Amino acid sequence: MALVQQIQLQQGGPGARGRARRVTGSPALRMVGRRLLAVIPVLIGVSFLTFAIMSTLPNNTAQAILGLSASPAAVAQLNHSLGLDRPFWVQYWSWLINVLHGNFGTAVQGQSVNHELAIYVPTTLALLVYALVVSLALAIIVATLAARRPNGIADRINLTVSMLGLSTAPYAFAFLLIIIFAVKLGWFPVLSGPVTGPASFFRNLTLPAASIGFGLFAIYSRLLRADLVEQMQREDYIVTAKAKGVAPWRVLIRHALRNSLFNLITVIALNLGGLVGAVAIIETVFQVQGIGNDLITGISNHDLPLIQGITLVFALVTVAGNLLADILYAVLDPRIRYGSTTS
Amino acid sequence: MTDALLQVDDLRVTFAVGGREVRAVDGITFTVSPGATLAIIGESGSGKTVSCRAIMGLLPTGTAIGGSARLRGTELLGLSDAELRRHRGSDLAMVFQDPARSLNPTMRVGLQITEAITTHRTASKREAQAQAIELLRLVRIPAAERRFHEYPHQLSGGMRQRVMIAMALACRPKLLIADEATTALDVTTQAQIMELLLELQEELDMALIMISHDLGLAASYADEVIVMYAGKIVEQAPAAGLFGAGGAVRMRYTRALLDAIPHLERPAHTLLPVVGGRPPDPTALPPGCSFAPRCQYAEDDCRAKVPALAEHVPGHRWACWHPCENGAAPHD
Asked: For chain A, is the Cβ count within 10 Å smaller at the N or the C terminus?
């Protein structure tokens, strides 16, 4: 709050008269503060749910470590030393306290979960951002072209491609990409290696990103196209712009596009959670060294500390994405930025 | 009539709605002289807005437009969009009804005005900004420099409409169409905006088409008045011929509109006269006079045959089989 007040003081001085409503703090800043506070219960809720779900499954962690030939006594012994025989809430509490100290625990195979996350999270984030940015950029371009002439050639092509994108499962599309671009053309590897720099980023992550991004592109471009067409037909300020003699392209890009981005941002933020599932599957298909792939491995090993750590990261990404969406609303819409209640 | 600024001849606009044709505007003819004020009066759906949008080329593609609209001899109907854009915003400008919705909410008002300037003229950013601030001053906006950088939501309704007017005046148009420009504003602001429009009209020597449902507004401000009903002109006269001494409203619909204006002299707690019934369904117009179903003076001939718009008194046209008598107010 001290920081917020300081910012207000800097905004004061000449010209600040008549802006008394800002005295209580910039609404946008306060919104960010409130949302950051709201992250904490979300993360606790997510981790608790994951813990609860995992603990209802038959517990075979020790069995998984020792192998099927291990004696029941040895399994019980290991379960005891891992603390897995304690009541559910005691286990959760000690995990939570450790996390608050920055320690995500030790995975079944003996490695530290912190270390695991440090290696795999950047790759997954890179993959996510790559898929999102490219599909979004293409969607904006294609949707604008399509909205220029509804039912024109660009619109029809986009409709066909988008229908394909919407109805194709990402993993099926992934295999198609592998067959064409990895096996036949040899442009990309079938299985992704570690990402070490820009060159290996493009080499290893392009096909996975395309597999994830195709469906996203389909959703984004159709949504934006529909929104643009609607704006162009219904909004009075579009008529105003046309009445000024502004060319159709400029009306579309300068006036309609910015106002159409709100729904798109909402959908992207909402989709982020579902994207986690796609990332896990696609990373497994391409053997990308990321947390999605790691999560699948962790689940088959009943590796609770690893699963918990990764779930928490995904939850954090989703929450951060939604916060970013809220900030973007404010950037795009001055009415939110200045916290106005009129119109 | 050779020196007319805008000459509209037999303008017809037809929409296709669900496979049926709707005649929104059915053969209207009028002239606007340079510097004159024409009021087009009518209810919602009478075709007044559609006629002006047709002239501006702002109707959706696929609308059938017939007839002719010449601006200083240049035919506007049938021009390509690119050709028409050269006139739109420069010779012909328009101010709309709802200033809250007619300004782009995510764009600073200054930029929306400079856009109107740079669309038609090459001007540096600095020049355009100086001109825009000048325009804001012209429409009597105080603290124009500060307002230039504000967003529409930071302005009051009247202020927004002033911005709309500033935008419309950016290229000093010869003709300004004000489409219900004061309807969405409160009464005090309405009067201010109307006064402003008339002052600017004088200052810039431009013609003004006022579209309104308010006959009182026309009586106070217009030189010439057109009353539209169901896509047709039903009465057309100089304002003096309708409202001045010795003049009179003849068409029954205009009379009904006039009677519906509340007067302070009227005794308190009496019912206001209203135009009964509802505007006709444009897809199913009656065979005779379109107003006949709502007209208390309608007789059998009204329901059988459409009255033609004819010049019964020099300068005064009306379309009615049983017009009001001159000087006699039939309701008194």
From this structure: N
With H, G, I as helix, E, B as strand and everything else as coil, classify residue B7.
strand
Tell me whether A243 touches chain B (CB under 8 Å). Answer: yes
Contact, B103 vs B150, CB < 8 A?
no
Residue ranges with strand state E in chain B: 6-17, 20-32, 37-41, 64-71, 74-75, 92-95, 175-179, 207-212, 224-229, 232-238, 310-313, 316-318
> Looking at beta carbons, which residues of chain B come within 8 Å of A335?
105, 151, 153
Question: Mind listing the pLDDT tens digit for each residue in B87-101?
Answer: 998 899 999 988 889
Exposure letters B222-241 (e unless 16+ CB within 10 A, then b)? bbbbbbbbbbbbbbbbebeb
**Interchain contact A233–B (C-beta under 8 A):** yes
Nearest to B88 among A243, A254, A342 (CB): A243
Interface test with B, best of A19, A149, A232, A244 (most B CBs within 10 A): A244
The string of pLDDT tens digits covering residues B135-190 is: 999 888 999 999 999 999 999 888 999 999 999 998 889 999 999 888 878 888 88
Chain A positions in Cβ-Cβ contact with residue B168 (cut-off 8 Å): 243
- Dist CA B242 CA B255 (whole Å): 10
Measure the CA–CA gap between B92 and B177, rounded to whole angstroms: 8
Q: What is the pLDDT of residues B219-276, one digit of tens each?
A: 888 999 999 998 899 999 898 888 877 778 888 888 888 888 777 777 777 777 777 7
Q: Is the ipTM of this complex over 0.90?
A: no
Helix (H, G, I), strand (E, B) or coil at B127: helix
**Which residue in the set A237, A247, A340 is minimally distant from B85, CB to CB?**
A247
- Tokens 């209810």 sit on residue: B43
Residue A240: closest CA among chain B residues belongs to which residue? B102
A104-119 confidence digits (pLDDT tens): 888 877 788 888 899 8
User: How many Cβ contacts (< 8 angstroms) between chains A and B?
Assistant: 86
Residues of chain B with CATH 3.40.50.300: 6-229
Cβ–Cβ of A239/B102 closer than 8 Å?
yes
CA angle B79, B171, B73 (to 5 degrees): 40
Instruction: Let me know: does B23 contact B46? Beta carbons within 8 Å.
Output: no
Q: Which residues of A65-99 are buried (b: 16+ CB within 10 A; e: fewer)?
A: beeeeeeeeebeebbeebebeeeeeebbeebeeeb
Query: CA separation (Å) from A206 to A131, A176, A184, A212, B322?
Result: 8, 14, 16, 10, 80
Name the CATH architecture for the domain at B6-229.
3-Layer(aba) Sandwich (3.40)
The structural domains of chain A, ordered by start, are 113-335 (1.10.3720.10)
Q: Is A240 on the interface with B (CB under 8 A)?
A: yes
Quote the minimal CA–CA distance from B151 to chain A in Å.
7
